[in-house]
Design brief:
CATH architecture: 3-Layer(aba) Sandwich
Distance between the termini: 22 Å
Largest sheet: 7 strands, mixed
Oligomer: single chain
Number of domains: 1
Helix content: 25-40%
Radius of gyration: 16 Å
Order of helices and strands: HEEHHEEHEHHEE
Structural class: alpha/beta
Shape: globular
Bound molecules: S-adenosylmethionine
Length: 212
């Protein structure tokens, strides 16, 4: 766990997020369905943002749904969205302000952890993955939709634009090798789909299993 947990605050990013997300969801909706809509059991979503995945849990067989988000401006929007959810999801959902690097849950307390477009943004990737590993039950699954590092010339281009892009996109990193970081933390990683969100944004839908 980090000594001083990150406290992101991006008022303007939060204000515009749902407009951008609605446009992106023309493409992302089936992927959100695959990641969130098929989660089961006691589920944790980290970096839930404005709650773009919440509606997809109506198809999931969830016992309980904990959602965390550290940025108060995003969290406020997630709370507003939560109030409008169908009862099946709303009654199971609890929202908590917390960063992925310091999750306020006991060890081995979830069957599944969901993250969509979050590991690109967390301040400390390894700490966030370690916390996810800790809170998953043995056999539990980390279900992910993330854009990731490219190779070759595209990787160079990612590094070149990163300083400006990261500033514009509230700390998002284009060039994280998320699958390798997950494997190093002890997860078994299965890439279910390779995607591309645009130039410089290869992406993956993946499941990382904490083997029992
Ligand atoms: C691109 S948004 C994705 C939001 C949402 N998961 C979605 O799919 O629309 C990235 C999110 O990660 C959150 N975030 C930033 N730092 C974080 C951290 N250290 N731990 C967890 N979430 C973080 C941001 O506040 C933001 O809500």
């Amino acid at each position: 766990m980090m000594s001083s947990p990150p406290r992101p605050r991006h008022r303007f990013f939060a204000a515009g997020y749902d407009i951008g997300a609605r446009i992106a969801d023309v493409r992302l909706a089936p992927l959100r369905h695959l990641v969130a809509g098929e989660a089961e059991g006691r589920v944790l979503e980290i970096g839930a943002g404005t709650g773009a995945n919440f509606d997809y849990y109506r198809w999931a067989r969830i016992e309980a749904l904990e959602a965390t988000e550290p940025d108060p401006f995003m969290l406020r929007r997630a709370e507003a969205r939560a109030r409008k959810l169908p009862p099946y999801v709303r009654e199971r959902l609890t929202l908590t302000q917390a960063p992925a690097e310091a999750l306020p849950f006991p060890d081995a307390s979830f069957d599944a952890v969901v993250a969509t477009l979050v590991l690109c943004t967390v301040a400390d990737l390894d700490a966030a993955i370690a916390e996810t590993f800790r809170v998953l039950k043995p056999g539990g699954a980390f279900r992910l939709l993330e854009h990731v590092a490219a190779r070759g010339f595209e990787a160079k281009a990612q590094r070149f634009v990163q300083p400006v892009y990261g500033w514009l996109a509230a700390g998002c990193h284009l060039n994280r090798d998320t699958a390798s970081a997950l494997r190093q933390a002890g997860f078994r990683v299965e890439i279910l789909r390779r995607e591309r969100f645009g130039p410089l944004a290869p992406a993956m839908v993946a499941t990382a299993t904490k083997e029992s």
